[in-house]
């Protein structure tokens, strides 16, 4: 299990870096905010921050471990905040509550990250660090879980609306499919968040235990793959989605 978790973590890290880099480069050409926010999310949080946090759990006490913890938490908070603002700007650009909600979630993430960093800085006994950091980690998972639920609700809500328009010939099948994929990323992320939260409440260090690491890595891989299909879909996939427009769209409308 531990070996499989590390393999999945390595694949998750590599995929996140590739997807994040491509989205950031695409945003420079298109000047698109959604691509930039999601690119920063995957590059900083998933591609660097989370792997650093996992690696820090296997380091002995010292400057290297503290550096990995601090950098990991800062990048996780930054990347996850970009994710929350993506939901606000893309799905609720005119709602008065969306940006404040994303800002509140970002503050919770930052507070949780500070608690985790403080636990490592103030606790010489590494055996006690996980317990003292548990509250901060729980706060971060809570804020992130809310963001995943927001993703699932918005994606599936828009998919339902677009599916009805598709049946009337008023929407494109590829665009409709993107909303479905976005909703599915939220559901997948809610699943791994639930696994991690359960182990955290059971008193487990989720940065080193193979089960939550495996759940997060597998969930992240699935989400990254769907993100490719949303923002950088290959030609064969768009052709396949286009061919599905007829009977399936009409049958499910």
Fold blueprint:
Layout: H1 2-30, H2 33-56, H3 63-91, H4 98-122, H5 126-167, H6 173-201, H7 210-231, H8 235-243, H9 247-252
Structural class: mainly alpha
Dominant shape: elongated
Q: In sequence order, what are the helices and strands, one letter per element?
A: HHHHHHHHH
> How many domains make up the 3D coordinates?
1
Assembly annotation: single chain
The count of strands amounts to 0
Number of helical runs?
9
Cα-to-Cα separation, first versus last residue: 43 Å
Weakly predicted, low-confidence segments? 249-253
* Share of β-strand residues: under 5%
CA-based gyration radius: 19 Å
Q: Biggest sheet, in brief?
A: none
Helix content: over 70%
**Overall pLDDT score:** 86
Model description:
The chain has 253 residues and is mostly helical. It has one domain (2-252). The protein is built from 9 helices and no strands. The model is unreliable at 249-253 (pLDDT under 50).
